[in-house]
Amino acid sequence: MCGRFYVAKPEDISEEYNIMRPPSDPIEPNYNISPGAYSPVVTHDKDGNKLEMFKWGLIPSWSKDPRIGFKMINARAETLMEKPTWRRPFLSQRAIIPASGFYEWKRDGSRKQPFAIRSKEHDLLSFAGMYDVWKDENGESVTTFTIITKPSEGAVSSIHDRMPALISEEDRYEWLDQDRKDPERLKGMLLSSKDEELEAYEVSDRVNKSDNNDPGLVEGVE
């Protein structure tokens, strides 16, 4: 799974993803993004790529209870077409969640050691995601997202059995193009081995508390 991630340089997102309509308000760095928080998300429409702040934890448009979002922070790539909740957004509401890296925890005896995981070559990773728009009882809209996960590979495999599915640079346009609806092709993007070469290193357990949010969280510890 992916339960925490971070965005250290949000100012780089617009150029990296050819954003046509950047947000009017500047996006602040966030070193400890947890479920229920807002994070930058890239989508595409007839005017090009756009960047908006969505809430993490997908609430289906038909849901009566918004608390379901905390159970839907991740979606398994292998079963997206099998579950009605995921089928529609997988085919028509795909997104990229830019991230500088993510955190995962490895059990070490009676405790869990947190690790930060990032690309060895690039400042941003492109998490595959989906979004939906939910309206509360007053008709106010909330746009939420989920991160798609797949079996872990490389540096992550010794820490956890799941990791975010990463969209390669060459697949970004096709992934965001909602006219592309071939489930096998889309699934192939998620499960391919074209992932970034990742590195993982131990960080302070200060990251365990979501209120902690500073650059020191991504610094390695001895």
UniProtKB/TrEMBL annotation:
InterPro entries: SRAP, SRAP-like
Keywords associated with the record: Covalent protein-DNA linkage, DNA damage, DNA-binding, Hydrolase, Lyase, Protease
Single GO BP term: proteolysis
Chain segments carrying region Disordered: 201-222
Positions with biased composition (Basic and acidic residues): 203-212
Family: Belongs to the SOS response-associated peptidase family.
Record-given protein name: Abasic site processing protein
One term of GO molecular function: peptidase activity
Top enzyme category: hydrolase
E.C. number: 3.4.-.-
